[in-house]
Predict the structure.
Amino acid sequence: MSRFFSEKYSSLVPYTPGEQPKDTQYIKLNTNESPYKPSPLAIDLAQRAACNLELYSDPTCSELVKTAAERFNVSEDEIIFTNGSDEILNFAFMAFCDNDTPAVFADITYGFYKVFAQINNVPSKVIPLNNDFTICVDDYKNANGTVFIANPNAPTGIALSLEKIEEIVVSNPDNIVVIDEAYVDFGAESAVKLTKKYPNLLVTQTFSKSRSLAGGRLGFGIASKEIITDLNTVRYSTNPYNVNSVTMAAGIGALKNNEYFNTNCKKIIKTREWTENELKNLGFVMTDSLTNFLFAKHPDYSGKEIYLKLKEKGVLVRHFDTDKLTEYNRITIGSDEQMAIFIEKLKEVLEELK
Ligand code: PMP
């Protein structure tokens, strides 16, 4: 730390992104990226947009907003685009949390929430999950703060039903409930349609997973016009050009090529089911994941040992070295070929650990 670093950030613990190694060619199952390329239309439109990079991007994201509003059946003033969904989540912390309105979230959830709370200097109310990693819905009723729920949750993959989400939203009429749907396209139910009914609901999604655009950095939020106006106030006060023009074009292509998106989601779900079955046969225990990853532990071997040995063999999964998660590994669902290699290497690891 330099002596110039502001006191207000001196105890900030930043988010740790998953490893992105450049040295070895790993089978990369550690950051929940898609194994599939962006849609051909996304690539084509992005390439064309790259020829006009001398111009600023459109701060209103008008064509992207129009395309998305049609796709999600909302009005254009009910949607906002951001630089990944991390950015809209940060905007929500900036816009809707303060000393009197703490951020309310689970102890085991997306690790960035506590960092956003810290950097925005807002208090957090952290609610423990049940022992089986499920959310206790009653804990979020009348929460007296801005509620952040990843649905499905990460790194557990467990989803809440729409009825449960609605119960939470209804019980917090004077607070915003943010539903982070980064993984919703792999089998869970989206709360987007509830935004028409509830003026206190903000749903966020990303193009990083199901639309294969993690490197493009594109996320969005859907909510009442008033909430979107607030988020735009924050956006225009920080970075009005937050979505670059190449990414914007790629996003339009990805939305227009809906069949490609649907096919890839189905393929990933099918591969997840295959992998889940293989892992069960090897004695692993898993949560019920509706995402593009599995969260698995073996009763006989430590999560860390398995993670390290897989890494030695060229397969990278995500291990969280914290109390409640240390027995587990989070395994991104790759292509069928990648998962077959993963299982083969895992069998070798288990044999060696015997
Ligand atoms: N929410 C959750 C639950 C996530 O796991 C992630 C990905 N790390 C994000 C949001 C942010 O994704 P992105 O910024 O790539 O849209």
About this structure: Residues 42 and 251 are 6 Å apart (CA to CA). The two ends are 45 Å apart (CA to CA). The mean pLDDT is 97.
